[in-house]
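__Protein archive entry__

___
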Amino acid sequence: MSKRYAAIWFRHLTTDWFVLRQPLLKNLPFVFAAPERGRMVITAASPSAESQGIAAGTAVADAKAFLPGLQVFEDKPGLSGKLLKTLGLWCIRYTPVITVDYPDGLILDISGCAHLWGGERAYLKEIGSRLKSKGYDVRAAIADTIGAAWAVSRFGQVTPIIESGLQAEALLSLPPAALRLEPGTVQRLQKLGLYRIKNLIGMPRTALQKRFGEGLLRRLRQALGQEEEYIQPLQPIVPYEERLPCLEPIRTAAGIEVALQRLLEMLCKRLSGEGKGLRTAILTCYRVDGKLIKISIGTNRATSGAGHIFKLFELKIPQIKPGLGIELFLLQAIKVEDADPVQEAFWSGKPGLEDRDLSELLDRLAGKAGAGIIHRYLPDEHHWPERSFKEATSIGEKPAISWPSGRPRPAYLLPRPEAIEVSAPVPDYPPMLFRYKGKVHQVRKADGPERIEREWWLEKGERRDYYYVEDEQGQRYWLFRSGHYAGNQPQQWFIHGFFA
């Protein structure tokens, strides 16, 4: 399949944007201006100002002398770039590959996209009419090369769609400026009487290079398709993604579910065929009014099961507000991993972490309660309690060491030890009672101490003497005394965890 590109030219980008915010200026002459070499110079002119002979590059003083009623506004640095990026992201509904063409255009790689709108002519009409309905004066063209599409969108007079392989014929009658040349090069060409591309296209390449440099030849080769031109996408392309444009805007939850099922069928078929499974996926809904709605899901184990993934998304479909309707759905598998072959039959007799039903249950719970609500912990190679464990990255991660079994550890460890008041004989007797959050606990049973030295190679601090105690209610706690026993000096006691 040959490449096809669309070039969009925003003829009055910044002034159109300003009119959208100041509608009273629509038919009035006004300009944007910025300081340049000690004077104010026009950077952009409205259509009304241009019709009266005011153009970019003119000094404001000269323009106002010619048109006293001209309104002048200060140009905002970087405004055109921000507008183009915003418009480019909006255009992703038409193709995933878009780049900004500074200072007033967009380039779209539309290869394999136009047929979804009924062909290139309908595709181009749809984009142009939608942008014009937003208030932007645009011209667009389609060709095999970026250079030809750019040239025709700005200088073409006949048709905006150049048939494949006919870019040379489309360029012949256009001026050299249509090749995206430097202003100085264009001026030298005009001085030599080369006012059309057809005047120079047949000249020897060595003569052109000697007189005008390699830049002119490179642009000519790019426009003719003799040299590849690459673009940097505005948004990185996700390797695993599927798009579903809608002939009619979708406004119902049932319609969203049908669209999601179709996307999952396509995506999961590809993932399964490549032995992959997704861990994180995002569904983006492009609304008719230009707003984007995103919902995401995550899984504990790489999976390509469309039914399971649909159940996870189904929990979040109520969050999607379609408004006037959704015109494009985009499903992206952001995180993908190798997946074990999945049996068609129901898995049974395989309990524990390897049970697929368990991982799917955890996914559904996370979908309802939140992605960060379920955690799995593995032992870590540290004796200091706060560093003796780590959070697993997935349900399938294997521990490097086994959990210590010599001494009991609490089921719940506080994020930070909390100070308590303790009454205890000295020096190494367990507490007789302690006060925690205003409540006094009488200690009925106790064991200890277990001395844990601080890891001096990581941090400085006191050692700890831990005790396992049980109060009159049968509840068990993990307490410790910080530091050495120091005679009559008061000791610091803390509670660090609770046993089941």
Notes: Residues 342-349 have pLDDT under 50 and may be disordered. Residues 412-498 form one domain.
